Amino acid sequence: MKVKRYLIKGLLTLTFISGFVSCSGFLDETNYSSQSADEYFQTKTGYEGLINGCYSRLRTIYNSKEYISLGCLGTDICTQNNTIGLSNLNQYPVNYDANEGSVYTMWNNLYAALKDANAAIDRSDKVILLSDDPDGLADDVLEQRVAEAKALRALFLFEIVRNWGQAPLMIHEPLAPVKTAELSDGAQFYTQILSDLEDAIRILPARQAGSDYGRMSASAAKHLRALVYLTRGYESYADSRDFENAYKDAVDVINNSGHKLLEDFQMVHCQSNETNDEIIFSVGFSTGANHNVNNWPKWFLFPYREGWAGLSKDSYYSNDDAAAIPTKFAYLMYDWFKDRRASVTFMSPLNGDPKTSTDGRDTGKNWFQCTGAIEGVFEKGDTVIYFPVPTDSKFKHWSQADKDAVKYKVYNFPTGDPADMSSDDYFKLGYQSTNSNTRAFLPVWKFKDANTVYNENGNASGTRDIYMFRLAETCLIAAEAAVKNNDNINALYYINKVRERAAKNALETGLSLYTGTVTLDDVLDERAMELFAEVPRWNDLQRTRKLAERVLKYNWDTRNIAGGIPTQLTEESFLSKYIRRPIPLTWLNSLSNGQELGNNLGWQ
Question: How many H-runs (helices) and E-runs (strands) does the chain carry?
């Protein structure tokens, strides 16, 4: 198949971003004096800086509220915090259109990253080599850097195709602005992605260690390829062996990469252990200036400083945002006593003990303590909000009389039908608070960071890495591929590998394993509990064609929009519209042939 070269208007200037670091700090900031860009990027220092810029783009994409919103909202396990403000991404209303800002921002971020990866690949043949100059780049190092750039390009292209289905297939650095573009279909995208990953896997080492930790590896590229095969397998243009190939790649990573499941789920997310054998690829941060910018700790914390007496701006809890909140279904799908993951994922007694908490502090206990003393009411450290959770030794359902008898606020743990959030304390707007536009809910704590401090501008100071690929997901990819291959024996084996680990060190034994025939819903349930917010849930539901079914069943907000505006999401509209993101109208309007290109099915 002939692959066309397409340029996008506005992507002329190469943005040189340096200073991306992982735990090992393998990238440093560099300035290139008076040399031209062409001359500079031919040097060892310049080309390494160009590769580092490709990695820096990972932060722009994945450390953003847009990524969290697009990946979490409008799913079965996440909803919005403020239901007075209509969320198009969560509720699929009639006015959700191609002007959606989050969609446009993600589109721009991905194409900016793609531009840099293409530049690194295209400019590689001009790099000065060590064999020609003592200050040049070694041939084998250059070969590896190009392979890394190809693996990153495959990742960016995959994000584009799985979200939009069709788009410009940009595989060269744009050298001049253009006013027109063409759209390539999904089949063309997947051909390029698989070609890039094949090249990367052939060259890259199985794992990256030491000063190279954080770079793309063959195992990371193969994990990605397994997910690529799995995703294409559901499409009309799929290859008949896609599910088989997804399974083979996943099993190869599981058995031969040197990565392994840790014995305890808590240790996977323990901040002091973030560089561990289960992590296949991550986006790196550090304590260095300009590198302590991980925002993830705040995305799942409700605005605690607004409307609750005794809670104020404080580094004890740091910044908050509530970009996405768990649905009732998300809290109730765990067996809190037998499944270790519940106590690690959310605020709990486990996260209130520095010896077992994810961040090594006591801030994750299931009650908020006073950060701003109020004379005669709260002393600093007093309980201000209490969240009874099943693993709390004092757990009970508090009656209104019980609540009235204490000075702090109590939010009962959800009960009853997981699909009905209408009467639970967590999901009531302004309940027991002076802020009528927000909810209080049990926060997600597995991303919390001991190094964050409160900033007035809202920026976090997190230093934890963002996990992109880890071996537990590889096991679940294998399980899903086995389901699609009608290989129930191996579907059971790989889904239960994850399940068995979830039971380790739980408060009680006896977590049930899967028996009988494994279904897609089983795999989606397990992905939800194991990978909550680590992977884009929207894409999981989109890939498996389960989005409308599960969202309408478990996300109460989608079916009960504030103001009486009905959701447009149905089984039919999902397949005829919401299965793809809209191509941003702002981008289309910037082209002279934008009207000719049109948009994805169902979008105007």
Answer: 23, 7
